[in-house]
Every structure is written in structure tokens, then in C-alpha cells.
Amino acid sequence: MNAVSNKAIVQVVLPAAKSVAELRPDFGAIEKCPGRGIVVTGIAPPESGFDFHSRFFAPKFGINEDPVCGSAHCGLAPFWCKELGKCDFVAYQASPRGGVLNIHLDEQNQRVLLRGKACTIMEGTLLV
């Protein structure tokens, strides 16, 4: 296991996607960790069709586990780019609901593009 921290999210790297999926989080302990949450990730087996799996936990903000967290994958893309030597990924968030993300890291413009299925939860207008 390898853990990396920035001010926002602690990143934990496990040796395999299976470890990520089988993880039984202690939300009380996670809530005491620094930052806004913990993302756990591991490399996927080649036959799975995925590059890596992940899970994101943020219980101190009322989200024990985010089903499919786009912001966490914006941080994972540069990490996996260095690890796998590529900029396009198919990731699986192994939460109980689960979800697939197609990710492109645009290194030149320092942007991460997330592609996949989504549904609108809320619409609104902000008056400034």
C-alpha cells in the first residue's frame, strides 16, 4: 500500500483492483483523516477492460462513499498516466452502485476530460 496526500484528498494505492473492491472502510476513522476525503485505487487486471479501479470516501462531508466521483478521477488521471505511460483510461469506480469513467488527460493544457453516462440531478439558475 502506498499513500499520497495533498491538502484536499489522501490517495491510497493498493496492489490490485480486487483489493479496492473488497475494502471494508471504517467511516469513523476516515472522518478523522486530514483533507476532504480518501480515494483508494488499484490497477485492474488486463482482461477486465479497465485500467484501474477506485473508491472515494468523504464521511466528514456527509458522503460515506461517493458512487462515482469525477473530482477524484481528475486527481487519479495524472497518477495513472505516470504509472501506465498513457493518457487515456477506462476506470471503474467500485462503489456499491459502481460506474464507468472514460478519462483523457490533456497534459499540454493541464486538463482532465471525463466522459461517460451521467444523469441530471438538479438544474437551477444563479443570480449574481
Automatic annotation (TrEMBL):
Q: Specify the domain of life of the species encoding this protein.
A: Eukaryota
Q: Which residues form the signal peptide?
A: none
Q: Which UniProt keywords apply?
A: Isomerase
Q: Mind telling me which GO cellular component terms the entry cites? A: cytoplasm
Q: Which InterPro entries match?
A: Phenazine_PhzF-like
What are the recorded GO MF terms, alphabetically?
A: isomerase activity
Q: Which family does it belong to?
A: Belongs to the PhzF family.
The protein in question is named Uncharacterized protein
